[in-house]
Amino acid sequence: MGSSVAERYISQISKYFSLSRSYKWALVCLGCVYICGFVRKRVFFKSSSASKVDNPSLKGMKKMHEQKNGSTSSKSTFSSLWLAKKFLSVKKLVKTHPLKKTSSGKITRIEDVTLNQDSRKIKKSSNVVGTSSNIKQHGNNEEVLRKYRKFKKFDIVEDYSDHYYKGSNSEKWQPPRNWAKKIQEEWRVLMELPDTIFVRVYESRMDLLRAVIKGAEGTPYHDGIFFFDICFPSDYPNVPPNVHYHSGGLRINPNLYENGRVCLSLLNTWSGGKNEKWRPGVSTMLQVLVSIQGLVLNAKPYFNEPGFAHSRGSANGEYQSMIYNESTLIYSLKTMVYTMKNPPKHFEDLVIGHFHDHAVTILTLCKGYIKGVEVGCCVNRGEKGANGLGKNVDRYMRKLVRAFTKIGVKNVKNFAS
């Protein structure tokens, strides 16, 4: 019976395609494969039904499978015809163009060349998909800037897992009632922040806070963004908050150490007069942030060091300050790259959006520094910095351009040339 079925299929296909005798054997193989598969399915389901017929759930599955087979029986015949036609088209192609030389001079079957072309198309398509996913991750420029401009200066969030002081207390810790009331008062004050400071507090950890401060124009920190983690002790406000700077291992200021320590009179971590130190009931968290921005991240941080403050205004003091600013600028540029690679939680949109918005300005300033503009000044001195600033900035600009490009900033590659 199997042979008669095969002959009938071969006869029908031969009449339809007007095949020569040499191709009939190929169709015999296809017919045999179809028949073997059909017989194997019948034997399998017969044995399965004999051993599992008492299982009602399997009966239902069997019925569904039989209905599916019935609906696809006509499709199997069509598939056989389609395979035969496809086989003939390939044979005709091989007969017409049996061999082809590749660019390397190697003789290759045309099927292999076709497969290679298809694989290249697939690979190219995969690259496009990867690029699209990257764009989706950061969004296009308009989308990034939209999120950046809508970024709230103050907000309450949940996840504090990357906070420096996350282990200082726990969610089960019950603070004194007056303490919680004071923290809520601080929150209300922080809702009216200047445009260059952003804060996130944590609903389940009222003792934690994170702030970012933008570097002011006219300083070596211009257009940089600097992160600080804050913890309110249990006896706050009788004592100042604890503040940790995200340094990335760089000391960009005499008051900001590589280990994150912040030295400031208002925090009682540095010497100062009575009115400069923390005053319970008077000093606030907002004052701390504004002091860091104005007194620490200033135009001439060299004079923050008490031992050098007396030289302010002297020729040697101003020269040393200029040298310090040049080194600080490089550290500030490195901090930018570090921050783009490691944006703190809840500030990702701010980091990406800020550098999308300011990348061209930052690189234009770097070009000016290479030409001799003094750091923190708009006047061209017409000479290179004493520490080889131009060469250092030029070398680091390439890293900046790569970092900007990686987050999706456009029109910056020409700055690397």
UniProtKB/TrEMBL annotation:
Reported EC number(s) for this entry are 2.3.2.23
Provide the UBC core domain boundaries: 178-337
Q: Which organism is it from?
A: Lactuca sativa (Garden lettuce)
The record ties this protein, via PANTHER family, to: (E3-INDEPENDENT) E2 UBIQUITIN-CONJUGATING ENZYME, UBIQUITIN-CONJUGATING ENZYME E2 25-RELATED
Identify the domain of life.
Answer: Eukaryota
Can you say what this protein is called?
A: E2 ubiquitin-conjugating enzyme
Q: Which UniProt keywords apply?
A: ATP-binding, Nucleotide-binding, Transferase, Ubl conjugation pathway
Q: Under the GO molecular function aspect, what terms does this record hold?
A: ATP binding; ubiquitin conjugating enzyme activity
* Top enzyme class: transferase
> Which residue stretches belong to region Disordered?
51-72
CDD domains in the record: UBCc_UBE2O (cd23837)
